[in-house]
From TrEMBL, chains A, B:
An RNase that has 5'-3' exonuclease and possibly endonuclease activity. Involved in maturation of rRNA and in some organisms also mRNA maturation and/or decay. Substrate binds at residues 213-215, 342-346. This is Ribonuclease J. The gene is rnj. InterPro entries: Metallo-B-lactamas, RibonucZ/Hydroxyglut_hydro, RMMBL, RNase_J, RNase_J_2, RNase_J_b_CASP, RNase_J_bac, RNase_J_C. Homodimer, may be a subunit of the RNA degradosome. Ca(2+) binds at residues 28, 30, 421. It comes from Butyrivibrio fibrisolvens. Its cofactor is Ca(2+); Zn(2+).
Length: 533, 533
């Protein structure tokens, strides 16, 4: 959920506007977007959104936030292509001002001037930003790697980093994702060589390659290998089809004529003339590969002799689902290859040192990655001679103030996660989440009582119904005993003249909760409902 | 959930009886034990449980299964110590026959003779089994590694593996966990050397070491390092205290006098004289380390200057929780060390080859590990010259039949996961789990209607209550509209003479479900309750 506001007096620019996917305890939530109260409070100052690249964690929240903060969006070509696809889905194309920016181009946004600098990453058209302001120059790398032999376009513009560095840079905000990893990140082209070898070694089998939907260069290389070995290619998985479609229109990917075919044409070709490029490399249960593995894909089933290549690495947290898919594929007889067919899109330690040496910032502000990665980059900065007190590890919402006197963390703006569930944005809060967690744990037991308000008599019920608690046939006796207990206690309470519904509800909650805990050692949610008759 | 039955005519022996922890979709489940229908159907043939080592996935289901299948239990000393602790908790000590077996010792169980062979593993007293029967010898390695310089006791008894191999072994069941990893597994002693270096380098700070509760040798080495650098040791975390307590009584661990202290005595020593050995190396939210990291531990809080060592590696699936704990520790100012302070307890590829070369089995049956690991061992066996058709990858329940004519998979016995929730064993089935998943996703909407059966009149309600669906203040209007809708539809249905309660319930379910989906794009569980008045 990357979003950073830069402010100089009355000008604010926003770098990136990403979403994040829900944590395991955010039950039922579809996605998470940032709280932009600070921007809303200063809406007249917001000059625009400047986007570094087209990954979901950098562009995904735009359609939600633009509805509240309608400012122009600046991005490079493929990034803008992906943003526009989102804006179309949300009906925001007409209301959103947009400008496609070229590398080396400057844009003026209030007191700021922003330059887009070519970098490399696991998506085409990634940019670093040089942000010029009266207070000094800030360089923001975005997510990046150093690739001297990229598949598409130019290598990272190291000369320009050096040139700007020479002018004197106030602060460097540098990608920390791989700051724990020693050495250099390998070029994307090395994967092409591996793919070539694998295609040569598996001439007889159908080849299925799973990778990240947005990695256009990877798809390009798979297509190249397929073309080389005279195979037809099917792209499968909605998100990948979308990205490749946009990339083709923008000519970020070159597909030889008659290479891409429709999935329904597969049957016209023998197995060893087919390549299927698919989503699902993270073991996502609804993605195409998982459906193939579990036999739920309508058009492709895995069979003995298939070769499945994972051109990816599991994102932390996905290891188990990936292994489940690998197991399923193997049980269906496929050969599964998952080693050394991937390179990272992020700079490792030596690459980070290179950027620091070109930019030579006064202040270091590690960005992107877990807290542990920020700490690892701080250590790198220290080794490069940046004094400890000149490195700032920011937490969400921290305000880093930089002026002639120095730099300091000075206060906080409101931040937080806004949960999106269905079409509801922000209407699922902590109470609802806690209830879902409770329901998930031990289910719910509902006790309905019909009470005549006038006579304070129980006229119907108690009726006790449960869901997600215990299989009913096993527990008829339990529910009967509970019903008797509630009946006795409520009748007794009413006879004592207690006619305060909240009091009766609490009574039912307590005695039922205690009874169930004693009998089952479970704590379902207890929900008493009183019907006024 | 390891459990394997060996049968020869009227004799059955059971090797291991483990539990597993619930998958992510088994909401609210505490643990999972195996379905032992096959043993119950053949209960008079069951001669005993033979246990290879004391890990939960090998002993954890014993107290549950022994209640149904009361047969004697055979295990080595520490393994039995850990089993007895469980039996005491379940009140099964008096009813369970037990025998502590020494390495090299044979036990006779019906037509079987079982020999316990010394191995190494991440828990003391692990054993392989040589199972002698009229059909031939089967060697079962259990979980094992080859450690020439173990911390406690002898190295694996390779001579005996060779000697038995010379006799001619029918089948080898060999641990596959690390079958994808090339090379050899390092000795546990190498960790001792690393710990020594770390203790030397961090002389000024308090040291907290997190590791697996049952890894007695690891705890021994941490205690050794503490003693060496004149520090007092606190063991924290219930499961670890239990294991160390048992290990001390059985003299599997040697603690110098006055080294272990009580947690309340910590305050009497300066930081650099303290070592805290703790559970929580997997980021488990309730474990001691996680509570320290989040500031919820009653007696220990993390502070700047602390050194926290993860003497562990994240088990697949736990990466994210471990990273969360690491982040929290770092945010509190601790230095966190998590690289190269752990070795695996399982044999890597070259170790597996060694065992195959000593045992030289006719048939290979890879065991332990994911399916992908079993496939990796099959490939190792193939490289060692075991014909493909002589290697059997079994799925749970598969019957592998071996006789003079050969070996084959021949049929299946019933298997499955029996879910334990609270004190309920097996009373949470698919229906309950599906309900919990549904409830977790979008909550529940309950509609209560009081209907007079005689007059078929709605006398109270509809009352609509929701939990885990949407925060109520935001949705008053939604609930009001839903109430009106249900009122109209039910009144209309009753007026048309529909008095069949299931029909009315379905009607409410349908219209309410559709209305809510249209308004929110969510699908809460809809639960109509009709009260007969």
């Amino acid at each position: 959920m990357n979003i950073t506001a830069f402010r100089y007096e009355d000008s604010i620019i926003v770098v990136d506007c990403g979403l994040s996917f829900p944590d395991d305890d955010m039950l039922g939530i579809d996605l998470v977007i940032p709280d932009v109260t600070y921007l809303l409070d200063n809406i007249d100052k917001v000059k625009g959104f400047v986007i570094t690249h087209g990954h979901e964690d950098h562009i995904g929240a735009l359609p939600y936030i633009l509805k509240e903060v309608n400012a122009p969006v600046y991005a490079t070509r493929l990034t803008m292509g992906l943003i526009e696809h989102k804006l179309e889905e949300h009906g925001l194309m007409r209301s959103t001002r947009r400008k496609v920016v070229k590398f080396g181009q400057f844009i003026n946004l209030g007191d700021f001037r922003v330059e887009f600098i070519k970098t490399n990453h696991s998506i085409v058209d990634a940019a670093a930003l040089a942000i010029y302001s009266p207070a000094g120059i800030v360089v923001h790398t975005g997510d990046f790697k150093v690739d001297y032999t990229p598949v598409y376009g130019d290598p990272i513009d190291l000369q320009r980093f050096g040139e700007i560095g020479k002018k004197g840079v106030l602060a460097l905000l540098c990608d920390s994702t791989n700051a724990e990893r020693p050495g250099f990140t390998a070029s994307e082209k090395t994967v092409g060589a591996t793919l070539d070898t694998l295609f040569r070694e598996h001439k007889k089998s159908r080849i299925i390659v799973a990778t990240f939907a947005s990695n256009v260069d990877r798809v390009q290389q798979i297509i190249n290998a397929a073309y080389q070995y005279d195979r037809k290619v099917v792209v499968e998985g909605r998100s990948m089809v979308t990205v490749i479609d946009i990339a083709q229109k923008l000519e970020c990917i070159k597909v030889p004529d008659n290479t891409l075919i429709d999935i329904d044409e597969l049957k016209n070709y023998p197995d060893n003339k087919q390549v299927i490029i698919t989503t699902g490399s993270q073991g996502e249960s609804m993605a195409a590969l998982s459906r193939m593995a579990s036999g739920q894909h309508k058009k492709i089933s895995i069979k003995p002799g298939d070769t499945v290549i994972f051109s990816s690495t599991p994102i932390p947290g996905n290891e188990k689902s990936v292994t489940n898919v690998v197991n399923e594929l193997m049980m269906k007889g496929a050969e599964v290859i998952f080693q050394d067919v991937h390179v990272s899109g992020h700079a490792c330690q030596e690459d980070i040192k290179l950027i620091y040496n070109l930019v030579k910032p006064k202040y270091a502000v590690p960005v992107h990655g877990e807290y542990r990665h920020l700490v690892a980059q701080k250590e790198i900065a220290r080794k490069l001679g940046i004094p400890k007190e000149n490195t700032f590890i920011l937490k969400s919402g921290d305000i880093l103030e930089m002026d002639a006197k120095g730099a300091r963390i000075h206060g906080k703006v409101p931040t937080g996660a806004v949960l999106v569930d269905g079409i509801g944005v922000g209407d699922v809060g902590n109470v609802v989440l806690r209830d879902r967690q409770r329901l998930a744990q031990d289910g719910i037991v509902i006790a309905v009582l019909g009470i005549d308000k006038g006579s304070a008599q129980l006229v119907s019920g108690p009726t006790i119904v449960s869901r997600g608690f215990v299989y009913v046939k096993e527990s008829d006796e339990l529910i009967e005993d509970a019903t008797d207990l509630v009946l006795d206690e409520v009748t007794e309470a009413l006879s004592r003249g207690i006619t305060d519904w909240p009091k009766i509800k609490n009574l039912v909650k307590d005695i039922l909760g205690e009874f169930i805990w004693k009998k089952t050692k479970r704590r379902p949610m207890i929900l008493p409902i009183i019907m006024d008759n």
